[in-house]
Amino acid sequence: MTVANLTAHKNESEFVIRARRVVVPAGCAPAAVHVRGGRIVMVGEFDGTTHGRPLVEVDDAAILLPGLVDTHVHINEPGRTDWEGFTTATRAAAAGGVTTLVEMPLNSIPATTTRESLETKRAAAEGKCHVDVGFWGGVVPGNIAELPRMFAGGVFGFKCFLVPSGVDEFEHVTEADLRAAMPELARMGALLIVHAETPAPIEAALAAVEHASDDEDNSARRYETFLRSRPKAAEDEAVRLMVRLCRETGARTHIVHHSSSASLQLLRAAKAEGLPFTAETCPHYLTFAAEDVPDGATEFKCCPPVRERENRERLWDALAAGALDMIVSDHSPCPPELKRREEGDFLKAWGGIASLQLRLPAVWTEARARGHSIERVAEWVASAPARLVELDGRKGAIRAGCDADLVVFRPDEQFRVEPELLEHRHKLTPYAGRTLSGVVEATYLRGAKIYDRGAFMNEPAGALLARGEGR
């Protein structure tokens, strides 16, 4: 064990945990974190007094991080719980050091597009969550009257798609729909998060791909075929549209799972202009490269797609420079049969990557190889997502007043991703067989140890969060 006395103190309401490396807002330094009643009451000197509280020692090979915040997770319950569910997803979160997540309004049935469907979602989650969980609402054609009702119900903002979402319950919006909805969102001060691909470039590219495939055997098994069907132009056109609508309406706008290096300059320009405009990317865009995806390996399919190696490096540069704000998982699993792995048809397979449990080691492995510090990684996977959903007064930092959400992380230990290690309902993932650096040793949620090296220590104790509780 690398955490002395952790088991003995897992239920203590007051204790001190100290480490030689603690990631706090000012950097990484020796510190003692004083916990009382689920909150951090003080971050003191490493050798300071414990005021008689029990002491938990973290050994020198480990780092104490803030609990991760993941604002892009598809849990799919109710309605498609055979894809994923609150119990399995939040166990995976805890095992990956994620203490707070915000769940997407699809692919559940019903989709979270009304106040009533929000309450249905909350009822489905009650008592099942191992970590704290909040919810997004959805913007779909014709539901403007529901937006203030959902906002009053506690959603953290609203998701929309500019292209078909893949499920009938969540329709995509047009520019006309957004021109109607975004002034209302601006009036409420609500955040709009956008799947930013437009239909026309995809439709044209897909037609060309299908025409070429008529003369080629097994074309659909080649990743390059799928990549050509989701061109950068679709993302670039969508980002350009959303910058313009953000400027015109003043609505806070956030681009989800950004993958195109060609539109990074648009993101930089929006920030330079002072627009309330942010963007995220995901571990799979920062880890994998199109050139390396094997034929038929449909576990790599996601939309937008994993792009070329050179594109990947430009995304890393954009993170370092601040054009991209954060890294979230976009955990989007499905039953293995929907991935069509046996036939290996990229054009027919469901698009989505299972990665919730692996975000921290996947990001750390690639970030460290490029010279980025653990403090930068903590900003990208914890602090910045917490700010996005205005939970930064409680989450994403080791600071007095915050929830005592803590992760004991061993940055130099490596492991091979094996299906039996994953808590996700379905184990198919492109990370399988990959060696990653960084092991989550233990996870605390509001001062209670919930995970310790493969063991879950308590019954589900996660809270259902609502907007406005974080500052």
Describe the secondary-structure layout.
Layout: E1 3-4, E2 14-24, E3 27-36, E4 39-44, E5 55-58, E6 63-66, E7 68-73, H1 86-95, E8 98-103, H2 115-125, E9 132-135, E10 137-138, H3 146-152, E11 158-161, H4 175-188, E12 191-195, H5 199-213, H6 223-229, H7 232-249, E13 252-255, H8 264-272, E14 277-281, H9 283-287, H10 309-321, E15 326-327, H11 359-369, H12 374-388, E16 406-416, E17 435-445, E18 448-452, E19 455-456
Parallel strand pairs: 2-5, 7-8, 8-9, 10-11, 11-12, 12-13, 13-14, 14-15
Antiparallel strand pairs: 1-5, 2-3, 3-4, 6-16, 16-17, 17-18, 18-19
Helix pairs in contact: 4-7, 5-6
Explain how this protein is built.
With about 475 residues, this protein is an alpha/beta fold. The chain has two domains: about 90 residues, Urease, subunit C, domain 1, CATH 2.30.40.10; about 325 residues, TIM Barrel. The protein is about 30% helix and about 20% strand. The strands form four sheets. A six-stranded parallel β-sheet has the order 10-11-12-13-14-15. Strands 1-5-2-3-4 form a five-stranded mixed β-sheet. Helix 4 crosses helix 7 and helix 5 packs antiparallel against helix 6. The radius of gyration is 22 Å and the shape is globular.
